[in-house]
Amino acid sequence: MSKFPARYALRRLSSDAREDLTWWRDTLPFYNGIHLFAQSRPLVALYTDASDTGLGLFYFATSTRDQAKEWRSNSPSLPISQAAIIHASQAYGPAHINTKEVSAILQAFLLFAHQWAHYEVLVFTDSSTALSGLSKQALRGPAHRPLLQLLSIAASLDILIAAYWLSSSENLLADALSRFDFRTLANLCPHWQDYSALIRPPGLPRGPS
Questions:
Q1: Beta-strand (E) ranges in 15-53?
Q2: Coil, strand, or helix at residue 59?
Q3: What pTM was computed for the model?
């Protein structure tokens, strides 16, 4: 006869369940327990892309969602400080493209989210996996880990996230950044002079305080 009644039977947690519990453990220390319901929030448009070469990302403040979808009208005046390139070799080891695409969004949050507290961030991506993960707040496989990390940052800073898909042909600037395509960058952002300012080390995830 079993030592424990059936309702007390021991069960082994799956790796996904352990990862979710770890997320709550690491996120709750940053959350103050107060949620503010606001009529509106400042908006930031974030565009990201990933390649075997690197991660590319840029953002800009926007007043409307429709304006956020027109990155071309913002690129001539986009400060180089609001864009970044991260070498793939520094950001991740061998990884599936889905993990790379989500990691690009994570890196944007690691680098810039401290400026977006209480904002709504409109994420534009040509990755259907990243779109699904941000919409459902869950993914299967290795891409789930960087997704959890960026959701933890968003929760700790009271950032809302809305995800939008766009085609690769519409994501030219982020694509050029991820591929270190400086010729295309010169055409899209001719006011950028010192491309070395774009290249940044990857941000490091925070641990619980």
A1: 43-50
A2: strand
A3: 0.81
